[in-house]
Amino acid sequence: MFATFRRPALIALSALALSACATAPYAGPTEVTRFSAPDLAEAPRGRIEVVVAPGEETSGLAMQPYLDAVTRELASLGYAPVSGGGTQVAEVRAGRGELLADGSRRSPVSVGVGGSTGTYGSGVGVGIGINLGGGERRTVDTSMAVMIRDMDTREVLWEGRASFAATENADEFEVANAADKLASALFAGFPGNSGETIEVE
């Protein structure tokens, strides 16, 4: 079972609005959906290792801003980020894709509902986008997904996805700024209401 995150009517209207003012910098609200184990809010927050998710196509330096942003947010929540030897692991995925006029996105990143069946899918690496031409500003949707697992049992304790759209002339288009915006929204009010989709301005 997979959750549907994008509301087609809303995203289409947003895309049209962006097209109408393509020369002005724009960064939309961040849409966030999260799932968590029932007792996660009361569980102790120990050592956690932040890594690129297995099978993630984007790796190396391109992923570092996202790993850094997630690490900072987890530390602020009382976790102790470590390099190896953690009791939990946070697996991170990220992707970018052109936001089309009909609200569709070339490289969706989806997040599953809990347990070992929870999966992500991303088709385009960080930094990939399509130039729309005609002097218009490119509009790209940037997404990040994080899954927190128990290191020993591999049980999924929490998972979430965050995304927002921005034009290429907006400050939030820059990868480091985008990563900070996504991580801040994703972990706001952690662990959040399981299954709820919210928008963070």
Q: How would you portray this structure in words?
A:
- This protein is an alpha+beta fold.
- The chain has one domain (8-193): Double Stranded RNA Binding Domain.
- The chain has 3 helices and 9 strands; from the N terminus they run H-E-E-H-E-E-E-E-E-E-H-E.
- The protein has helices at residues 8-20, 64-76, 175-186, and strands at residues 30-36, 47-52, 80-81, 88-98, 110-111, 120-121, 139-150, 156-167, 197-200.
- It has a 7-stranded mixed sheet with strand order 3-2-4-7-8-1-9. The chain has a two-stranded antiparallel ribbon with strand order 5-6.
- Helix 2 runs parallel beside helix 3.
- It is globular.
- The relative contact order is 0.26.
